[in-house]
Amino acid sequence: MKNSTTVILLVFGLLFLGCESKPQWNKWQAGDILFQNGDCGDFCDAIKKVTAGYNGHSFSHNGILIEENGNWRVLEAVNQGVQITALEDFLNRYTTEEGKPKVHVGRLKPSYQDLIPDAIAFGKTLKGKPYDQAFNLENDAYYCSELIHFSFMNANGGLPIFDTPPMTFKDPDIGKTFPVWEKYYERLGLEIPEGKPGLNPGGMSLSPVLDIIYNFENP
C-alpha cells in the first residue's frame, strides 16, 4: 500500500511540474491584439528593422482576437487575404526553440474598450478581401495592421485611434532602400510608397491606446 501511495504521489508531482513548465494564458478578452514575431525572411527583417516594438521586441505581424461559438480565433490579414484563424494555429505558427509562441498580447485601455464589438463586427465583414500587397491605405485590400486600424476607425465614427506615420522602406543604417523592397515593387510595377502614411506591428505595439499585458516567450 505504501509503495502504491508513493507511485501516485510521484505521478501527481510530475503532472504538477509539467503544468508549471508550460504556463497557459487564460485571461483572453475579445479585442486583444496579438503581436507576432514571425520569420518571413528578408521582408520580415526589413519590417522589424525600421520600427522597434514594445520594449525593443521585433514584430512582423498582428491580428485581433475574436470569439466564435465559444472558441477563440484570430481575425488577421495574411498573404491569402483577410481570414479567421484558430487561436492555437496562430500561436503555434512561430515558436521559440523551447516551443513557446513568439507572441505578445496587447489590450486596449479602458477608455477604448467600448469600440471592440463594433470593430470586430466591421473587421469580419472584410473576410475574404485581398491582402494589400501595395501597402496602400486607399485601396480595398488590407495588410495586417491596416485591418486593425480600419476596424477600430470604423467603430470610432471614422476617427482613427492608431497613428499612421510616414512609412519608410529604407535601411536606417545606410539610408538606402532595402533591396528586397526594390525588387518587390519592381515586380508589382509600382513606385515605392516612401513617406506615405501607414502602419506596422512594431509601431502599433507602442501605441498609447493599448497596453502590452503578456509575453508568451517570457511569461
UniProtKB/TrEMBL annotation:
InterPro entries noted in UniProt: Papain-like_cys_pep_sf, Peptidase_C92
Gene3D superfamilies named among the record's database cross-references: endopeptidase domain like (from Nostoc punctiforme) (3.90.1720.10)
Protein name: Permuted papain-like amidase enzyme, YaeF/YiiX, C92 family
Organism for this UniProt entry: Cyclobacterium amurskyense
